[in-house]
Every structure is written in C-alpha cells, then in structure tokens.
C-alpha cells in the first residue's frame, strides 16, 4: 500500500470509526476497519481516544444521574416532612374548632388560632414544600398570614386599627425584605432594569400610606400638614443617595465620598429644618456647639458638630482617593 492510498483509507476509516464504535456499520465496513486498525498506528490511537471520551461521557452521565436522583430524593423527603408538619398543625385547628363551637356556640377566637397557625405554616411548611423561589414564597405567605392575623384579631377585639397596622406591616416588611427578594421576583421586561427605582417608589408609596392611615386613625385636622412636611423632608436624603448611587457613572470611591458628605450635612440639620418648616422660626443647633463644655445645653450641638466634621472629612478623603485612583489608572 503506498502513502497516497493509505492516507485516503485513513480518512475513510476515521469517518467510519464512530459507526464502528457504536456497532452500527455493515459487516463489510467493520472488517475493513478492524484490518486497518491493526496496521495503522495513527487510526488506532484515534480510535482509542474516541473510546476514552465515550468512557468520560458515560461516567459523567452516570455521575450527574446519581446527583440528580439524590437531589430528587432530598426534595421528595423535604416535601414529605412539610406535609407531615402541615398535618400535625391541623390537630390544634380541629381541637380549637370543636372547643370554640362547644363553649362559645360560635366561631370567633378559633379564627385567631387558625391565623396564628397559618403564620407558623408560612415559616415552616412553605419553605419545605416549594421547589422554586423558596424565599419569595415564604416571605409572601408570611406577610399575607400576618395581615390575616391582624384582621381577625382586630375584628375579635372590635378594634379600628386594622388598616393602620396592616399598612405599617407592609411598609416594614417591604423595607426589610424587598432588597433581598428583588432577585427572585420576575419583573415585567419593561421595568426589569429599573428594579431599584421600582422598590424605592414602592417603599415611598407605603411610607406615605402609613402617614395617611395614621391621619385617619387619630383624625386631627392639624395633623396632615406637618405630617406630610416632615415625611417629605425625610425622604429627600434616601432618594438623593439612591439616584446618586444607581444612576451616576461615578466611581465607587467618589460615590461613597459624596454620600458621606451629604449624610454628614443632612443628618445634623434635619431636625432644625423640620422645626423651621413647622414653626417658621430659624433656630440652628450647631452654632451653639462648644466642644469644651458638655452639658444639657451643648450636648446636641456638640454631637451634631462632630457628625458634620467627621462625615464631611472622611467624605473628602474618599473623594481625593477616588481622584487619585482615576489619575493613577490613566497613566
Ligand atoms: Zn489509518
């Protein structure tokens, strides 16, 4: 066999190798391949490699199969535990249902027990039986059941505080939980890139809702104006910080520097600004500071002055560091 025909054969053989390996070629082809592999070192080593990768593939498939099976078993196991706990929780529900009917001839405090157990269920059973977005479903069912508990307790005690309590609860839970849950919420495509903005708007809305509910609850005409003024002044700083951090193209150090300076200026004067807006008389606290004298007259002023100086100084240092960094990178 000369080199030319050998090369041609090699190509044909190498094309046939996968079929030969899977044992799906004709008898004739198999014989040709087997004969060629005996003679040709090159092709037989290619065949070996092919077999090795097949072995790797098989091993990999088996391994991921085992892992998958294990994960499935774990899931089934936790669902079983979840359902069992759910059934156990049904026992007090039934006992209380009967007791309430027998003793009170009606269902009233039973609903409090039921709502309380729903809160427990949302925290214990829901994370066990849900497969995807555990945290989201747990927080959602927890929030709903807490509000339900507020409702039945309010009805049972003939209170008029349900809306105030539930709106405050939604506000508090939103502020604490939403930043962590944002990742697992499927936002509509149009606002997906504006998650932060959406959360800020949502929190601000509920903050004002709390203020409105308080207004209805205490129903004093003099409440509304100062309440809205104080709230609006107080949300300015969080909004400025959010817009600065989220929407400007500054470096991290520069953002941190500006944020600290803003906080350092804002925090010590906010109560003075609110007082000024409410009473129309300017009465600034910081000018009364005297760091050598610490008594009832100066302690507020001194603390405010220290906050101002420390935060603004650290902020300026960060700004300089940021500039330095940018300068250094350019060269
Ligand atoms: Zn060959």
Question: What does this protein structure show overall?
Answer:
By secondary structure, the protein is mainly α. The chain has a domain at 250-331. The protein has 10 helices and no strands. It has helices at 3-21, 27-39, 41-104, 109-129, 134-156, 162-181, 195-218, 224-247, 252-279, 299-330. It binds zinc ion.
Notable features of this structure?
mainly alpha; 331 residues
Element layout with pairings:
Layout: H1 3-21, H2 27-39, H3 41-104, H4 109-129, H5 134-156, H6 162-181, H7 195-218, H8 224-247, H9 252-279, H10 299-330
The protein binds zinc ion.
Span from first to last CA?
66 Å
Which structural class fits the helix and strand makeup?
Answer: mainly alpha
What does the main sheet amount to? none
Rg (C-alpha, Å) = 35 Å
Beta-strand content estimate: under 5%
Count every helix, treating DSSP H or I runs of 4 or more residues as helices. 10
Bound molecules: zinc ion
Question: What is the gist of this entry?
Answer:
The chain has 331 residues and is an all-alpha fold. It contains ten helices and no strands. It is flat and about 105 Å long.
């Amino acid at each position: 066999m000369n080199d030319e025909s050998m090369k041609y054969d090699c190509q044909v053989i190498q094309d046939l190798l996968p079929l030969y390996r899977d044992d799906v070629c004709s008898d004739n082809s198999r014989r040709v391949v087997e004969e060629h592999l005996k003679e040709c070192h090159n092709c037989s080593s290619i065949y070996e490699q092919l077999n090795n990768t097949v072995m790797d593939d098989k091993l990999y498939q088996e391994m991921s199969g085992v892992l998958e099976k294990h994960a499935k078993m774990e899931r089934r196991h936790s669902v079983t535990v979840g359902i069992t706990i759910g059934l156990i929780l049904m026992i007090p529900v039934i006992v209380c249902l009967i007791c309430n009917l027998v003793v009170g001839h009606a269902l009233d405090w039973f609903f409090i027990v039921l709502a309380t157990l729903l809160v427990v269920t949302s925290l214990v059973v829901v994370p066990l039986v849900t497969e995807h977005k555990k945290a989201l479903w747990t927080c959602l069912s927890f929030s709903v059941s807490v509000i339900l508990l507020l409702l039945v307790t309010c009805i049972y005690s003939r209170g008029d505080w349900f809306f105030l309590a539930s709106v405050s609860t939604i506000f508090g839970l939103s502020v604490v939980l939403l930043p962590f849950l944002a990742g697992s919420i499927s936002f509509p495509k149009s606002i997906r890139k504006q998650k932060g903005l959406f959360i800020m708007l949502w929190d601000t809305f509920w903050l004002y809702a709390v203020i409105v509910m308080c207004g209805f609850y205490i129903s004093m005409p003099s409440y509304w104006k100062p309440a809205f003024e104080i709230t609006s002044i107080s949300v300015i700083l969080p909004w400025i910080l959010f817009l600065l951090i989220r929407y400007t193209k500054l470096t991290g150090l520069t953002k941190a520097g500006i944020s600290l300076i803003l906080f350092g200026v804002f925090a010590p004067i906010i109560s003075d600004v609110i007082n000024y807006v409410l009473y129309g008389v300017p009465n600034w606290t910081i000018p009364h500071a005297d760091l050598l004298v610490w008594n009832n007259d100066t302690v507020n002023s001194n603390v405010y002055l220290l906050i101002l100086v420390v935060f603004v100084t650290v902020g300026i240092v960060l700004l300089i560091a940021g500039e330095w960094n940018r300068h250094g990178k350019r060269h």
